[in-house]
Every structure is written in C-alpha cells, then in structure tokens.
Amino acid sequence: MKTVPAVDPRTIDEHVRDGWWGTDTLTDVIRRQRADNPDGVAFVDEHGDRMTWTTYDELSDRVAAALMSLGLDRGDRVVVFLPDTPLVHAAFVGTEKAGLVIMGLGHRAGEAEMIHLVRKSEARAIITPLTHRDESSSALVARLRAAVPSLEHHVVLRGPSSTAAIAVMNSTMALSKPADLRARIDAQRLDPNELFLLNSTSGTTGLPKCVMQFQNRWFYFHKKAAELGALRPDDVFMSVVPAPFGFGLWTGHFTPTILGAPCVIMDHFSARKMVEIIERERVTVLCCVSTQFIMMLNLPELAEHDVSSLRIMFTGGEAIPEARAREFEARTGSMVMNFYGSNETGTLSGTSIDDPTVKRLTTTGRIMPEMQVRLYTPEGERIAGDIGRGVPACKGPATTIGYYDDEAANATLFADDGWMLMGDVVEIDAEGWLSVVGRTSDFIIRGGKNISAPAVEDEVATHPAVSMVAVVPAPDPVFGERVAAFVELHEGASLTLDELREHLIARGISKEWYPEYLFITDALPRASGGKVAKGELKKDAAARVAES
C-alpha cells in the first residue's frame, strides 16, 4: 500500500496538545449529524432541492463503494469535476471514505488546465456530470485520456441529491453497496493529517501548482471563524465560491457541516439569483468575494428584495473597497468580515464582530496568536519586532504541507527553517492589526481569482500576429482588476480582441485568462535592465480605461 503524504508527527503532537487539531474527519462529523438530526438539511441547491444529513452520508457511501470497485490503491488521486451542487460535496466525502485523494477542479477550467492537472496529479479516475458545456462528458474524458493515458476510470454522478445516480462508464458491473461497506471504509479512509485534496493555485511559470490540503487545518480554521463571527448551528450559510478552492472549502464544505447548519450553494453565479435565494432561504451568513457583493449592490432591483436576514458577510481573496463595504452594511444591516492569508498558508489574521468598525473595514484583523508571523525586508532581512511594513512569513496550525511533487516551488515557498513565505507586502502595527499593502508577485486579481500575468502572456504569444506581449492589471470598479494585454504585432499583421479570444478558446484556455483589453503598441517600454517596464504599462492601462 502506497504512503499518503501527511503532516510530520511532531507537528501533529504540538497542535493536538494545544487543542487546535483533533482526530475527526468530515466522515465522523457527518455520521454524528445524521445520528442527531437525520432529516436535518445539510445543503440546498439554487433550485431549492434539499440534501439531508442522511442522504449526504448515504450518497457519499455510494460514491465510496463505486470508487472501491475500481481496484484503486489507497492514496490514488481522483479528479472531481462537478458543478457547485450538493453532489460535489458528496463526491468529496465519498472519495475521502474510499481512502483516495481528491484532485479538485473548478468547473470553469479549460481543457489545457485540466490536462496539466490530471497529468500532474497522476489521477487514475475522474468523477463528472453526465454532460459538460453541451456535450457528453464521455467526449471530454476521451480527450483527457488521449493526453493522459493513466486516467483509467470515469464515474458519472448526476441528478438531484435525493435521487442521484452513479454509473461507472464502460463497465458492465452492477454497482451495489457491500454489506461490509462501513467496515471497509473505516479500514481504508484517510485520517485528518493525511493529504485528502489537491487544489490548484496560479504560478508565474504559467502552469498551476497543486497545493496539498489535509483536513485538520480546516478544522482549525473553522474554530477561528466560528469564534470571530459567533457562528451558530441555527445559521443558514450561503457560499458562492467554487468548492475546490480554499475559500469555498471552509465556507461550503467544512464549517456549515461541523456546525450542523444548512449551506445554500449555486452551480452558476448570478447576483440577481443570489439575492432571490437569500430572500427565499433567509440566509444569515453570506460567503463571497468582493466582486460578488459589489455586483449585488449594483443590482437596480436590490431594494425590492428582503435581505434583512443577513447578519454576516465573509469576504476575502482581494481588496475590499471600504466605501462599498460600508454601503453593504447600510443596505443589508449585516457586518462585513475579512480574513488575510493564502491557499498555501491558511489564514494569518481575521476581523471579529467585536472589532471597531473602522478596523473591521480597513484592516484584515489582528494576527491570530497561534499563527506565528515574521516580517522580512524584500532582501530577506528580519524586521525588528515584526512590526512595520514587510513581506510576511508564517507557521502554525493553518499551513498546508506544501506543493505536490514540486521541489522547485517548495524551495521558494519554504525558508530553510520551515517557515512558509508569502508574496505580499503588509503592514503590522504594535497591536497586531494587519493591513495588505500590495503584492510582490506578478498576478492580476480578478473577482478574487489570481491570474498569472506571465501565464496569460505565454498564451497570447502563441497567436501568429503577436510579436511581443506584456499583460498587466487594468483597474475595475466591480472586479477589482481586469486583464489588459499590450501587444507588438508582426509587420503587416492585425489583431482584434475578438480574434485573440477565438484563438484562446481554440487552445482550451480557461475563460478567466482571456484579456479584456487589447492595446496595440509600436514598442513596449523597457527598463534600464532591458525588461519590459510594467509599471509604465499599468499607468497606461489605467489612463486608457479611465478615458474609455
């Protein structure tokens, strides 16, 4: 039986002793919720279909049984490529029960990204819906298999949760639930300190890296979120962040389940639909990125809906405009809460409902004491007292194991003494309040999604008309930033934004990477060292957008 990557025993002992980690996984939690409240609601989809705790436990058992029938080894990777319905959470837990590791793919991923992540994770199976983007998912999987032959098995999970159907494609074997399934699950399932999920993060190389997630870090973060937001079992959550990503994991997959609270999710985001659902389901805790709540505020019909049930809105992933946050609180009567951290580090700081309003809306809260934080200069020198402006490093119960099968990336992520390094510049005051100043890495943050500018440049450069390209952020009042491409063309060539997008669509590139502004230039500006002067281009993009 292969070894599953896991946290080292010394770290486990430390955090268990301090009370931050335990021995439970979500399998244990769901079984208890079922025993205590079998007909209670675990999830509600956008159409109002409800998944009970009993259905959640039984459906995840059926997923586990289907995966166990494939002859996979404990620790093998399974791609879960499902829209954000209750089924994706049942698939996650079923994979955990089978002792297998999830490769979580956002449902908007392009095929090029999918192929890379299937290959990187060495996945042997994939779980999909019956159809994807108006074609059979079997056609998609056939193309993935052609590129990555190690992908052997295809499982389809479809239907509303109450009548969900599971099928192993190209198999004549009838699926059944073995009488000893519970015992088999308990013998094989993952423990809370083992790798249970890989999710992707943007990289400056243009190829996403896979972050190794284990469950105890999310149980820790649940404790902090519940404390800071005074979260309760009678809350009604709504998470509109995709399930495989960090924000979506804690707001959709972990915290509501641990509390025993229902969670409302949407398979396709729409601000209008979100407001309607908040009113219909009497949502009390909304979890979204800044772009989504700004889109909600921009709805002309917002005043026609009763959203007074909201008491908290958790947001993060990008800068929060203070004026819009104040507007949100004024129009909904709720409190805006914020965290700071990354997919790799977990949260370093967070605001509390007891914080002064000005601190809650202008900082990311106080540093969490158990998340040790240091500050360094950009040159790597330790800043005295870890107070002031600098680049943070951290360690503690929220950090991940690192990147999967990527020694070069881990060498950049971890310092020699094991502290995890971050790519941001922050300010920390003497009372521990943390404020984000900016980023040291070359990313565009569009609607909370990190987009690697070099990765987009690599794709734009494949167009035959393009000679040189530089990609920078253009400011946007709703999304925070949009992708702007400055392009030098080959002599005699021409290019429009629509032509560029068609080219990227044909290459299977994720929609988030499509440039939204195309600026043709005779020559890209250069810095003294010969590199493209991106600072000048950012100013140019901002000026052009302001004039348009």
From TrEMBL:
GO molecular function terms here?
Answer: acid-thiol ligase activity
Q: Give the matching Gene3D superfamilies.
A: 3.30.300.30, N-terminal domain of ligase-like
Where is the AMP-binding enzyme C-terminal domain positioned along the sequence? 456-531
**Ranges of residues in domain AMP-dependent synthetase/ligase:** 31-404
Which residue stretches, if any, does this entry annotate as coiled coil? none
What processes in GO biological process is this protein linked to?
secondary metabolite biosynthetic process
Q: Name one Pfam family in it.
A: AMP-binding_C
Which key words are in the record? Ligase
Q: Does the keyword Ligase apply?
A: yes
Name this protein carries in UniProt: Unannotated protein
Q: Name its species.
A: freshwater metagenome
- Where is the organism placed in the taxonomic lineage, from the top? unclassified sequences, metagenomes, ecological metagenomes
